[in-house]
Amino acid sequence: MQDKVFIFDTTLRDGEQSPGATMTHAEKLEIAAMLDEMGVDIIEAGFPIASIGDFEAVSEIAKNSKNSVICGLSRANFKDIDRCWEAVKHAARPRIHTFIGTSPLHRAIPNLDMDQMADRIHDTVTHARNLCDNVQWSPMDATRTEHDYLCRVVEIAIKAGATTINIPDTVGYTAPRESAALIRMLLERVPGADQIIFATHCHNDLGMATANSLAAVEAGARQIECTINGLGERAGNTALEEVVMALKVRNDIMPYATGIDSTKLMNISRKVATVSGFPVQFNKAIVGKNAFAHESGIHQDGMLKNAETFEIMRPADVGLSETSLVLGKHSGRAALRAKLKDLGFDLADNQLADVFVRFKALADRKKEVFDEDLLALMQDADTSAAYDTLQIKRLRVVCGTEGPQEAELTLSVDGVEHTVDATGDGPVDAAFNAVKAIFPHEARLQLYQVQAITEGTDAQATVSVRLEEEGKIATGQAADTDTVVASTRAYVNALNRLILRRQKTAPDHDVKSVSYRDAI
Ligand code: KIV
Ligand code: ZN
Q1: Per-residue pLDDT tens for 476-511?
Q2: Is the C or the N end of the chain the one with fewer CB within 10 Å?
Q3: What are the pLDDT digits (tens) for 307-364?
């Protein structure tokens, strides 16, 4: 039997917290179900005090959970911890995760001295443990905390009842040798350290998150905290698919087991890219579009003779299909179902019926429908939800060599339809002005990006729109053969996500806004 390394996924918390990655309630539930099914040991489902929406998502994920432990995050005060417990307690296996920044820079924020902070850790972990027998504690910015103080507070947390101690590299500062040494030091110096699980939580600012996580495991950590596609603040978190495949492919030198079904990696990677609006870079390890592509003659020749010449894992190991069936307007439901299944979408009959209508509409406008087109179609089905506040009902744009361009838009706002005419400097500007006339807002357009999905003049365009309003960021995406339609849908999609983001009241990682003394 190999030592087990627990996989703790925080896509729905640390991932969703990254600027622009807001997910809807339904999307969070779907991702949680996929994580549970693929064998993730612990799902950090959200930060329940952050908003009613976060609280409801964590509660419902807890209720629906099957095998995974469901965890919620809370700052170091009783109010946060109580709220977290209210949400996770519905799970068959709940966990409370509470944290406080312990490095000198982080201690200065709540203005606590070392002793005051130590007391606070004792009180809050004890409180969490009185509610739940599975408690995780994190000294945020552990990798920049004085070693003696880190040992002291880890010991306090263990004595107060923490069952997992997570060692975050919050700013992505550490390096593999140091990451290993830190875990080894804690195991050697802290009384009771052999009774709990040490976790590693790395950010990727220097591109070392995966290496740092694996080094920590070799030194004795037995939980890796990670996200799908490495989604997360700034340069992101450790990518789940990378640590899982590294432990699988190099099991000869890293003999640790995970419970993850790696054939589900591609599917969940696409899902997270879609709902977060963060596309996966083409050359991303494991799940990038080019991760298994061989174009140079010498590579192709080698591959044809023996795939192992240039491949250390098979595409099928990560759930990548090798078929190259192209669909068109004569393709039927069965062909579409088979193709979508290959791409990781196992649809129920009613879902297939809906997608089939959209597929036919696309195939009427486009001779050949490629995998990329179908993925965009599925993405659109995901991002245009029936319960969105804003929904486009009709759009007509007039453009030509004589400006200004005009747009006539009917937009439903909370179920009430409004129609306006607007003009603009180009058709996209006119359409955006029409949206703004119906739904006035102060959000600033930070990014507008158009990309052709495939080749040819009938190619679909994928449009990404990023909006910023008072420091809150939301990203929207849409695809269509008509670039103006795709742009307007992406804009409205970003606004719908911004509306969700507005509901978050607790600033990320903030320890100032809830007074410890009031809350305790
Ligand atoms: O990066 C970090 O320190 C965190 C903690 C809240 C665990 O995400
Ligand atoms: Zn983090």
Answers
A1: 888 888 999 999 999 999 999 899 888 776 544 443
A2: N
A3: 777 679 999 999 987 655 678 888 888 888 988 887 777 888 888 998 899 899 888 8
Q: How far is the CA of 420 from the centre of ligand 2 (A)?
A: 44
Quote the mean pLDDT of the chain: 90
Q: Are 312 and 334 in contact (CB under 8 A)?
A: no
Q: Which of 473, 465, 475, 476 has the alpha carbon at shortest distance from 504?
A: 473
Nearest to 11 by CA among 42, 56, 51, 49: 42
* Ligand 2 ion: nearby residues, β-carbon < 5 Å: 14
Map residue 488 onto helix, strand or coil: helix
For ligand 1, atom 5, name the residue with the nearest CA.
Answer: 140
The C-alpha atoms of residue 159 and residue 13 are separated, in whole angstroms, by 27
Give the whole-angstrom CA distance, residue 176 versus residue 205.
14
Residue with tokens 């002005």: 433
Assign 125 to helix, strand or coil.
helix
Q: What digits encode the pLDDT tens for the residues 382-440?
A: 666 667 899 999 999 998 888 789 999 999 999 999 999 999 999 999 999 999 999 99
The 3-class secondary structure across 264-328, one letter per residue, is HHHHHHHHHHHHHCCCCCCCCCCCCCCCCCCCCHHHHHHHHHCHHHCCCCCHHHHCCCCCCCCEC
b/e for 2-19, b at 16 or more Cβ within 10 A?
eeebbbbbbbbbbbbbbb
- Residue to mutate (ligand 1; options 14, 141, 174; most atoms within 8 A of CB): 14
* Helix pair 78-88, 52-64: axis angle to 10 deg: 40
Distance between Cα 14 and ligand 2 center (Å): 6
Task: Give yes or no for a contact between 210 and 245, defined as CB atoms under 8 angstroms apart.
Answer: no
For the stretch 100-119, pLDDT in tens is 999 999 999 998 999 999 99
Helix axis angle for 52-64 and 25-38, nearest 10°, is 30
Q: Which atom of ligand 1 is nearest to the CA of 237?
A: 1
Pocket residues: Cβ below 6 A from ligand 1:
14, 99, 138, 140, 166, 168, 170, 201, 203
Instruction: Kindly state the DSSP code that residue 193 receives in the 8-state scheme.
Output: G
Ligand nearest to the backbone CA of 199: 1
